[in-house]
Design brief:
Blueprint lengths: L7 E5 L4 H12 L3 E6 L2 H13 L3 E6 L5 H15 L4 E4 L14 H29 L2 E6 L11 H20 L4 E8 L18 H12 L4 E4 L3 H10 L1 H9 L9
Parallel strand pairs: 1-2, 1-4, 2-3, 4-5, 5-6, 6-7
Length: 253
């Protein structure tokens, strides 16, 4: 098993939820974390918390939907630390409503953040990892990439899973690993309106650590979603029936 100690890790969507929990866990285990998100004040607060406890954290304000911000994030990381060992593509946003009600701006925002950003950022770090002959690209997928729920969110996660598979096969001879961590319902701001028993973001953070220590294709969190994914593949009509009755988007008067 590999150790996370001493690794330079970029984490997008790091200001809260899964990203913040992962940054804390990796720092606790000796990794240097580069925190990227739009909210500068939250990033700075998290960086201060990590640095005050003996860790090393650098906050870089980043809008994942902007290509120039992603380039700046990678350049800044290299300038400070000289290499990038792990990229964790975690930034993501949920749907704003049913497809028929979404604006062009809303459509573009979710695709840019959930899909184009991890593709672009992976493209930016690859030359550095290829020169190192080592590296690991991890992205936050979703159980919704296996069992589609209403909305564009599932589409972006299906596409991200396909991208992860394709990239892994593209770079497999270069010493670079590509993995996906696919959470189900996790207790974050995105799920605050759901009245379901859900694990906290720390469960995903531990899964990310596990992927770095022992690279694998995909990890589903919590693991009890795996049988549901299998059932959806064996009996897709059943998945259609269940998800269509979940009423994730209530019609508005």
């Amino acid at each position: 098993m590999k150790s996370v100690q001493g690794k330079i890790v970029i984490i997008t969507g790091a200001s809260s939820g899964i990203g913040a929990a992962t940054a804390k866990e990796l720092s606790r285990r000796g990794a240097t974390v580069v925190l990227a998100a739009r909210r500068q004040s939250e990033l700075d607060q998290l960086a201060r918390e990590i640095n005050s406890t003996g860790g090393i954290a650098l906050a870089v304000q980043t809008d994942a939907s902007k290509s120039e911000d992603l380039k700046h994030l990678v350049t800044t990381t290299i300038e400070h630390f000289g290499r990038i060992d792990v990229l964790y593509n975690n930034a993501g946003i949920g749907d704003e409503g049913p497809l028929a009600a979404m604006t062009d701006a809303g459509l573009e925002r979710i695709v840019a953040t959930n899909l184009l950003a991890p593709i672009r950022l992976s493209r930016e770090v690859l030359p550095h990892m290829q020169r190192q002959r080592s590296g690991h690209i991890i992205s936050t997928g979703s159980v919704a990439s296996h069992i589609a729920s209403p909305g564009l969110y599932s589409m972006t996660k299906f596409a991200l899973r396909g991208f992860s598979d394709a990239l892994r096969r593209e770079v497999w001879r270069s010493g670079i690993h590509v993995s996906l961590v696919s959470p189900g319902f996790i207790r974050t701001a995105m799920t605050k309106g759901l009245k379901l028993p859900m694990p906290g973001p720390e469960a995903v953070a531990l899964a990310v650590v596990g992927l770095i220590e022992r690279p694998r294709r995909e990890v589903v969190v919590p693991s009890f979603y795996r049988p549901l994914i299998l059932l959806a593949k064996l009996w897709p009509w059943l998945a259609d029936t269940i998800t269509s009755r979940m009423r994730l988007f209530e019609p508005k008067d």
